[in-house]
Fold this sequence. Notes:
621 residues, seven-stranded mixed sheet, globular
Amino acid sequence: xxxxxxxxxxxxxxxxxxxxxxxxxxxxxxxxxxxxxxxxxxxxxxxxxxxxxxxxxxxxxxxxxxxxxxxxxxxxxxxxxxxxxxxxxxxxxxxxxxxxxxxxxxxxxxxxxxxxxxxxxxxxxxxxxxxxxxxxxxxxxxxxxxxxxxxxxxxxxxxxxxxxxxxxxxxxxxxxxxxxxxxxxxxxxxxxxxxxxxxxxxxxxxxxxxxxxxxxxxxxxxxxxxxxxxxxxxxxxxxxxxxxxxxxxxxxxxxxxxxxxxxxxxxxxxxxxxxxxxxxxxxxxxxxxxxxxxxxxxxxxxxxxxxxxxxxxxxxxxxxxxxxxxxxxxxxxxxxxxxxxxxxxxxxxxxxxxxxxxxxxxxxxxxxxxxxxxxxxxxxxxxxxxxxxxxxxxxxxxxxxxxxxxxxxxxxxxxxxxxxxxxxxxxxxxxxxxxxxxxxxxxxxxxxxxxxxxxxxxxxxxxxxxxxxxxxxxxxxxxxxxxxxxxxxxxxxxxxxxxxxxxxxxxxxxxxxxxxxxxxxxxxxxxxxxxxxxxxxxxxxxxxxxxxxxxxxxxxxxxxxxxxxxxxxxxxxxxxxxxxxxxxxxxxxxxxxxxxxxxxxxxxxxxxxxxxxxxxxxxxx
Length: 621
């Protein structure tokens, strides 16, 4: 009934979709197995992509020929560049999306790829022979063979939904949990754990009084995520913000005795940086209000998402508390918020390729690894799909360095440090964030996609070459061109910058914090004429390179210094027990994690600098 596939992907959420695309775009024959074809690419929680650090990840996925950025641009209803008041390393794109259009676009793009087949059924187990995965076994007993398997089960592994004192099995509201895989993996020697996440109630936008809220419009003009020629966003919708108050908090506290979070029914750890509303008012009892974001679910629906009001309290308590929020006095609720508890597998059981240590050619991606967020899942899916395809072809797999991508930081953190709570990406996790900006993801990663031979990479590479050329030409112009005081002093005074009294290089003027290229072009017709043929994105890159040249060079020097440790290889079968001088904890942690390099070993929790020195001596370094 089935051919033998190169790669089978289990689960069609953000990780599964990207995994299938990545493997297919490397020329592999892929089967995407999902329990429900109607929920492919579903936005289970908030209808938005990107945000702080997450926006950088989406741009990196796009630079590696993934589809998340393209789907986001096609279905966006609002776009904002966050942190514009800070330096460019902190700029983070975020888009509000049409939830139904997002899922439909994902399915359409997947179905248009001739290398991807689909099968709708629960996968209940794996076919494992001689320590290697050979395919999957479905709930109906069908066996489908493959060279590699990627598990992207999201919150579905033994998922349990909590609303107050009620609990029932499910991987998402209205959908069944997946059973069988956890039990088999544990029998194979994997360690499993439990985590939890949650979602807020959905409400009727027709019942809200927006006059009592603060409007949050999108950028004008709006940006986009993909480096490809996706459509410009038109007719943006507004988001809104409002606040809880002491009355809301008091009402929520009446349900604490029935809260699964506080009475011990939920065993899994929840996300530290995206807590439920009851967790917020318990942990931050000194605060008398918390901000809420009122976000439309799409262009053709009145359904509203309340960002910041995730809850698993009884539905009547949720409803009464909502009615005490300004603008929501007459609110109608579509469905209550809930918490969901699910199985995950500590990611220290993975190699940096996301292949498991215990079973060859078996890869994990997304929430199964203990992460939270669409973007974190998508980038893991992309990397797992690429490496599953490369494993099926018996080619060298891809590992991104911490200095190359936020994706590299995320995976390195997971496999070396592990996580005991849902992992979320932040800019602060990246030590080289001046190099890892959202504007240069294509320059960093598209050459890798091109080298791998991913479908569509050649056209993307042409744009990268053009962007590099443009930045160099603009830089050269600023270093060569000079300006007279009478040409520029009026502009300098307008931005509170010191005037000049002699002919000065434009490059030196642009280094001033108050000055930007747009302002200079407005004051200097010759500069405006020179810049006219260049795309705004290219000009922005050149400006960042000029203004932050010193900082960029310092980080590049830091990368070069640390590269010595990253380049010192450790063999997978290295016997740490025979290395005299290693602490017992280091021996145990290194034996489990099996780092590929001294650099990775140095970042494992429990391995201290003295242990690294012992390893270096043992290696003759």
